[in-house]
Amino acid sequence: MTQTNNKIDTLLVKHPNLSKEEAIKIFADKNERKKKKRAEKAERIIAKKLINDKT
Fold first, then answer.
1. Residue 42: CA atoms inside 13 Å, Cβ hemisphere, count?
2. In whole numbers, what is the pLDDT of the chain averaged over residues?
3. 11 Cβ neighbours under 8 A, 6+ residues apart
4. In whole angstroms, what is the distance from residue 8 CA to residue 1 CA?
5. What's the CA gap between 18 and 39, in Å, rounded?
6. Residues of the chain by 3-state class (helix, strand, coil), percent to 5
7. What is the SS3 assignment for 19?
8. Taking the model in full, what pTM does it have?
9. How far apart (Å, rounded) are the C-alpha atoms in residues 10 and 23?
């Protein structure tokens, strides 16, 4: 959890006009986008394997 806090603190230092709640929201949104991207990539890999197994 401290790594997350460090990243939020770093974001606050770079952008002092943000509140802590806004920084947490930005960080959470970024993590959600990363999770979605990883899931899409995994789906593409699985689909590719299924296609290759059929041939």
1. 6
2. 92
3. 18, 23, 26, 27
4. 11
5. 30
6. 85, 0, 15
7. coil
8. 0.71
9. 10
d(CA 40, CA 43): 5
Work out the angle between the directed axes of helices 2-14 and 20-54 (0-180°, nearest 10). Answer: 120
Residue 53 one-letter amino acid? D
Cα 32 versus chain centre, distance? 5
Which residue from 9, 52, 48, 7 is spatially nearest to 30, judged by alpha carbons? 7
What's the average model confidence in pLDDT over 36-40? Answer: 97
For range 34-47, the mean pLDDT: 96
